[in-house]
Design brief:
The chain has four domains: about 210 residues, DhaL domain (Serine Threonine Protein Phosphatase 5, Tetratricopeptide repeat), CATH 1.25.40.340; about 80 residues, ACT-like. Chain A, domain 2 (Alpha-Beta Plaits); about 110 residues, Rossmann fold, CATH 3.40.50; about 100 residues, Hypothetical Protein Tm841, Chain: A,domain 3. About 50% of the residues lie in helices and about 20% in strands. The protein is built from 20 helices and 16 strands. The protein has a six-stranded mixed β-sheet, with helices on both faces. A four-stranded antiparallel β-sheet has the order 2-3-1-4, with helices on both faces. Helix 16 links the parallel strand 7 and strand 8. The radius of gyration is 28 Å and the shape is elongated. The relative contact order is 0.08.
Length: about 525
């Protein structure tokens, strides 16, 4: 177990936080009822952490712990989304400022870092409210301070456990949470981040001692809760970055915004030549909020969100309980089992338009990537995707002309990635996979490589006949040689229903002898009409 944080650990933590927040995004979004039930706290925390992590990824390695934490904090400040993102940026700033003093990031230093984060976050908010992420952060700092051990892992465990207990108390501190039957969304996000840091440092999940908080389904009271703490009077969230200012003018800005709206948070990057602030307010007069920023310095990257649009969108999306999934059209029981084992939904390759629409609706996923797995299935998949999009579900078809291309696409699917980026990655993987198959000639015919007779074994690449053999194993070897002639690292073979015994073993022996550097994966697909399908990546 680590006794002190180092640069590599912080980099791993940043990536792991993104993964964890992506996994918990829907849960945290559904908890979001205060101050506005706009179901975006999980999304905002994830976007903020991704901005911070991306900044660290772009930063050169080997610059040291303090430098990386400073980059992490500044990335969060610049990319902060919503009130929760603004608070997160100050948590990271507290870590950066404390460790940036040159002390080794031991358990004792972490105590000071959490206390500094607590101070910065509380000072950033014009009207701190009990029962929010601020209460959870304060409890985490107290828990770290009360730990009787100086071990980094023990201090983190104490902080995470105290934060979890404080999270469970938030409904008793804030009436709107109690009425909705939820805990505070921002506080839940902070607990996730602390538990992830503990896991990265120790290699073990923190023992909370209690179950995770219950989360209402979309459309439950959490979504229907009325706005509290004055936000029912305001229609917009205004955010912007501010530079060219100073502490006195920022203090005046914070006071001035308090007269314009509520949920005012003005946070800074700390002293330095590139000092910058992130400004957040809920208001009705957008112009007044921006003009206040002009008087204080130079506002830029101005963002305005209308709350009614968000709450209406959330209500309209009550049917979705999953963010991102894959639907593969398959032929053969073994193929279906293979795809389901990799986490995909499946539908028969012969599905009608109506059957596909039923599967898409039943998925209850906001974003669905469809893998037709055969050229003949693509038109009906495209038609289903178009109708689903018209009904408000984001469905995209990734061109896959064979199940081996669909498998290659599924192998790079990442449900935590932005859906658009995920589709691009899957499409690139499918396109980079050369496809071939062995089938049996059903009649005499003239092909590009000569005349075939009924019962001959035909080797095909991209639907063109490239060899004719009398024996399946010889045909399989010849097909592999042709497909590997332009290179390849991984060969995937999907055995058909009529594949003769011994073909898989013969191919494995051939590759070991001729192409020992090539990896082979063989699966039983059970598909009719071909002996096997081959993919080369």
């Amino acid at each position: 177990m680590l006794q002190a944080l180092d640069e590599a650990t912080v980099r791993r933590w940043a990536e792991a936080c993104c993964d964890a927040l992506a996994a918990h995004r829907d849960e945290i979004d559904r908890l979001n009822v205060f101050p506005v039930p706009d179901s975006d706290t999980g999304t905002n925390l994830l976007a903020t952490m991704r901005a911070a992590s991306d900044a660290v990824r772009r930063h050169a390695e080997g610059t040291g712990l303090g430098a990386v934490l400073a980059v992490l904090a500044r990335g969060a400040l610049i990319g902060a989304r919503g009130n929760s993102g603004v608070i997160l940026s100050q948590v990271l700033r507290g870590l950066a400022e404390t460790v940036g003093n040159g002390a080794a990031a031991t358990g004792a230093v972490l105590r000071d870092a959490l206390r500094r984060a607590d101070e910065l976050a509380t000072a950033a908010v014009s009207d701190p409210v009990p029962g929010t992420v601020l209460s959870v952060l304060h409890a985490a700092a107290d828990g770290a301070h009360d730990s009787t051990s100086d071990s980094l892992g023990d201090v983190l465990a104490a902080a995470a456990a105290a934060a979890a207990r404080a999270l469970d108390e938030t409904p008793r501190q804030l009436a709107v949470l109690a009425r909705a039957g939820v805990v505070d969304a921002g506080g839940r996000g902070l607990v996730v981040l602390l538990e992830v840091l503990h896991g990265v440092v120790t290699g073990h999940p923190v023992d909370r001692g209690t179950a995770d908080p219950g989360v209402p389904a979309r459309g439950a009271p959490a979504l229907r809760a009325t706005r509290e703490a004055g936000s029912n009077e305001y229609d917009y969230e205004v955010m912007y970055l501010l530079d060219g200012s100073d502490d006195d003018r920022v203090a005046a800005l914070r006071s001035e915004l308090g007269g314009v709206g509520d949920c005012v948070a003005v946070v800074g990057s700390g002293a330095g030549p590139d000092q910058m602030w992130n400004v957040h307010v809920h208001c009705t007069d957008i112009g007044a909020a921006i003009e206040s920023g002009v008087r204080a310095g130079r506002p830029h990257r101005i963002t305005v969100i209308r709350f009614d649009d968000q709450t209406a969108e959330a209500a309209a999306d009550a049917r979705f309980v999953t963010e991102n999934t894959v639907l593969a059209m398959v032929v053969g029981d073994g193929t279906a089992e293979l795809f389901r084992g990799e986490g995909a939904l499946t539908a028969p390759g012969t599905s009608t338009l109506g059957e596909l629409l039923a599967v898409l609706a039943g998925s209850r996923a906001r974003h669905v990537t469809m893998l037709p797995g055969a050229g003949a299935a693509t038109p009906v998949a495209e038609a289903a995707a178009e109708q689903a999009r018209d009904a408000g579900q984001d469905v995209v078809v990734v061109p896959t002309a064979s199940p081996v291309q669909a498998l290659a696409a599924l192998a790079v699917h990442d449900p935590a990635r932005r859906p658009g980026d995920d589709v691009v990655a899957m499409a690139e993987a499918a396109a980079a996979t050369r496809r071939g198959e062995l089938t049996v000639a059903i009649s005499e015919a003239l092909t590009w490589v000569g005349r075939c007779q009924l019962g001959d074994i035909l080797g095909m690449i991209d639907d063109e006949v490239v060899l004719i053999e009398a024996e399946p194993l010889a045909a399989a070897r010849g097909l592999l040689e042709l497909m590997l002639s332009s290179g390849g690292e991984l060969v995937t073979v999907l055995l058909g229903r009529d594949a003769p015994e011994g073909v898989a073993g013969g191919l494995a022996e051939h590759l070991r002898a001729v192409h020992p550097e090539v990896e082979l994966a063989v699966y039983t697909g059970g598909q009719p009409r071909n002996i096997l399908q081959v993919g080369v990546e």
